[in-house]
Sequence to fold (220 residues):
Amino acid sequence: MQSNSSKISVIICDDHPIFRQGLIRIIEGDESLKLVGECGDGNAALDLIKNQKPQIAILDITMPGKTGLSVAHLVKKEQLPTKIIILTMHKDEEYLNEAIEIGVQGYLLKENAVTDLATCIHKVVSGQYFVSPLLEETLMSYSKKSMAESNYLVDLEKLTHSERKVLKLIAYNKTSSEIAEELSVSLEDLQKCHEKIIEKLDLYGPYKLYEFALQNKNSF
Fold:
């Protein structure tokens, strides 16, 4: 059993009590996670983030007070260390694009919460990005537009075999721990590999590594 100090601290903010209780059960049922607060509106969520300083804040996109995206924007503006996961029932491209531009690292459809929440949390904590699989086409559409606007050039020949394998595993939503275990490398070495890929392909910016992996999923 993990000690409390080694667990990932999480707060949950959703204005639907029954759904929120379901999320709480998921968190409390995972020995690697620790719930440190819950609430039902955006103003309370921001207070919890400032007072509890959780590693992860799971925020409903639409709720009383401040929206989840408004809270995320303020967290970034005030340079708070908490990483944000947005929960939504909306599949609209507009919401996802706004989340990406704010720098939100996790974007999870409520219908996928039961199966994907824990994976999403672990990926975000490790510095990766997670978007519900049902939204991958929307993310790729955003990526294509972004690449076109920046005259983005892809050069897979710059990548080593190992780097391509890492990208392939990222594209299949593997966490850093899972990738490191599968490749028999340390998390530190894996992070160095990420940095080399980013440098080689000039992928700086939110979601760029993940977008690239999805965009070229069948090329690795």
